Amino acid sequence: MPAVATQFNGISVVTKANVYFDGNVTSYTLLLPGGERRTLGLIRQGTFHFNTGAPELMEIVDGTCRVTIDGAAEVSVHAAGSHFKVPGNSGFRIEVESGLCQYICSFLS
Q1: Counting Cβ atoms within 10 Å, is residue 60 exposed (0-12), middle (13-18) or buried (19+)?
Q2: Coil, strand, or helix at residue 25?
Q3: How many other C-beta atoms are found inside a 10 Å radius of the C-beta of residue 49?
Q4: Among candidates 8, 5, 9, 26, which has minimal Cα distance to 17?
Q5: What is the value of pTM for the model shown?
Q6: CA 17 – CA 29 distance, rounded (Å)
Q7: What pLDDT is recorded for position 2?
Q8: 37-42, long-range: CB within 8 Å, 24+ apart, which pairs?
């Protein structure tokens, strides 16, 4: 997998933020050429659970998080430059122990 993107060119951004968990998780939707959609966001310190519809690829841009995919026993640690995949119609628990965790979420087909 190539390195985590540091810049997107030729995109549109939905200006209304996606705000979850009382503002502890916030993202913006990016609309890429060809109809692809991603979100770019940050997670504050805490533990949060997300459900998925489509499969997702989560790329960590900055910070560190601990992730448990629904149905899995193991916890994986992800730092800047790493990624994890989440199956569709599933979910995951993500924990940020300190600081912020910044991410890019790609919705896979």
Answers
A1: buried
A2: strand
A3: 11
A4: 26
A5: 0.92
A6: 8
A7: 60
A8: 37/107, 38/104, 38/105, 38/106, 38/107, 39/104, 39/105, 40/103, 40/104, 40/105, 41/102, 41/103, 41/105, 42/100, 42/101, 42/102, 42/103
| Tokens of residue 39, six digits | 């979100």
Sign of CA dihedral 59, 84, 89, 20: negative
* pLDDT bucket at 3, cuts 50 / 70 / 90: confident
> Three-class SS of residue 43?
strand
CA distance 95 to 109: 26
Neighbours of 105 (CB within 10 A): 19
Q: Any idea how long the chain is?
A: 109
| pLDDT on residue 5 | 82
